[in-house]
Design brief:
The chain is of the alpha/beta class. The chain folds into two domains: 2-172 and 355-367, Glycogen Phosphorylase B (Rossmann fold, 3-Layer(aba) Sandwich), CATH 3.40.50.2000; 189-347, Glycogen Phosphorylase B (Rossmann fold, 3-Layer(aba) Sandwich). The protein has 16 helices and 13 strands. The protein has a seven-stranded parallel beta sheet, sandwiched between helices. A six-stranded parallel beta sheet has the order 10-9-8-11-12-13, with helices on both faces. It is globular, with a radius of gyration of 20 Å. The N and C termini lie close together (11 Å).
Length: 371
């Protein structure tokens, strides 16, 4: 089976890299080609290098101030040419990026089947996250095979009349990637420790990420003022790798720069970020991937969004929605710092996103698939 794996962003690369390696373990079963759209460039290249992957195709579409229109049209024409050259039996896409949807749509136009990794996530709000919710909805109705991370995701697909025999609950490949990365970090512990020597170890570390479009403007300012209050109210170390988007960097540096116990750092490569997650006390984020990874490390997650498509973490107690409201973020963060019982309850909740064997399960389904 010739498989074309299309990806364009760092999260896609993280979640698909272990699958590429797993599929390539059996060359008698699979011929695999990786196509980078490079919807993002630098952070994507870091992940590819860390996982030791070189793409067979690189569209290199990223340009300054690109819009969703730019990304969509460039992926459509670029992936079309790749499909016509490689002639895959199936195109694999992951998640909910514009690369995911546009690659799936191109495969449909070329009458090539699509397999969707991390299928069935739903926030039930088409504008939050934007444009991801609609990207994954549309991808689901193009795909032939759906690799759902959880039974909740499977049930979402069933409610949309996706045939049950095309849905496979496999866990999330992000956990496979996380375990692979933790093993590497363990072999080079001193290197990662030295990289963050400026962060005090005698204080709880709060790791922060934030980049969602729906938070640009007023909501991001609320988040920043909440972080400022937390830093003032408790002896903590707050580490914030600041996204490159100027809509993020503007308010973050305006409000938080110069505060002694807030460390505003440049975006991290994947292994350094995993190291910080593992070292952290708790995490504030609007990232989907972090909501999946942190429970495997026993780290409570406060989700700075009003809705999440990863409801399993909320239901399991590993994560809690706090939105972008100043008072809620401050209250819930301080509660986790001050109340050990509340903290332990979240930290020891069961991770609903899998056990690190998702890639093996996906490969098994593909080995037995014929249509």
């Amino acid at each position: 089976m010739r498989l074309l794996i299309c990806l364009g962003t760092r999260p896609e690369a993280i979640k698909l890299a272990p699958l590429v390696h797993k599929l390539r373990e059996t060359p008698e079963a699979f011929e695999v080609a990786v196509c980078l759209t490079a919807q993002h460039r630098e952070m994507l290249d870091q992940v590819m290098g860390f996982f030791g992957l070189t793409p067979e195709y690189d569209l290199n579409i990223m340009k300054g101030n690109q819009t969703l229109y730019d990304i969509t049209t460039a992926v459509l024409t670029g992936v079309r040419d790749v499909i016509r050259d490689f002639k895959p039996h199936m195109v694999l896409v992951q998640g909910d990026t514009t690369t995911t949807f546009a690659s799936a749509l191109t495969a449909f136009y070329e009458r090539v089947q699509v397999a969707h990794v991390e299928a069935g996530l739903r926030s039930f709000d088409k504008y939050s996250p934007f444009p991801e919710e609609v990207n994954r909805l549309l991808t689901s109705h193009i795909a032939h095979l759906h690799f759902a991370p959880t039974t909740t995701a499977r049930d979402n697909l069933l409610r949309e009349s996706i045939a049950a025999n095309r849905i496979f609950v496999v866990g999330n490949t992000s956990i496979d990637a996380l375990f692979w990365c933790l093993k590497r970090i363990g072999q080079e512990e001193d290197h990662y420790s030295r990289a963050f020597s400026a962060i005090r170890r005698d204080r709880p570390l709060i790791l922060v990420t934030g980049h969602r479009r729906e938070s640009f403007g007023g909501p991001f300012r609320e988040i920043c003022f909440a972080l400022k209050e937390i830093a003032s109210a408790r002896d903590v170390e707050i580490v914030y790798p600041v996204h490159l988007n100027p809509n993020v960097r503007g308010p973050v540096f305006e409000i938080l720069k110069g505060i002694d116990n807030i460390h505003l750092i440049e975006p991290l490569d994947y292994p350094h970020f995993v190291y910080l997650m593992n070292r952290s006390y708790l995490i504030l984020t609007d990232s989907g991937g972090v909501q999946e990874e942190a429970p495997s490390l026993g780290k409570p997650v406060l989700v700075m969004r009003n809705v999440t498509e990863r409801t399993e973490g909320i239901e399991a107690g590993t994560a809690r929605l706090v939105g972008s409201d100043y008072a809620t973020i401050v209250r819930e963060t301080l509660r986790l710092i001050d109340d050990s019982e509340v903290y332990e309850e979240m930290a020891h909740a069961v991770n609903p996103y899998g056990d690190g064997t998702a890639c093996e399960k996906i490969a098994g389904v593909l080995r037995g698939y014929s249509e």
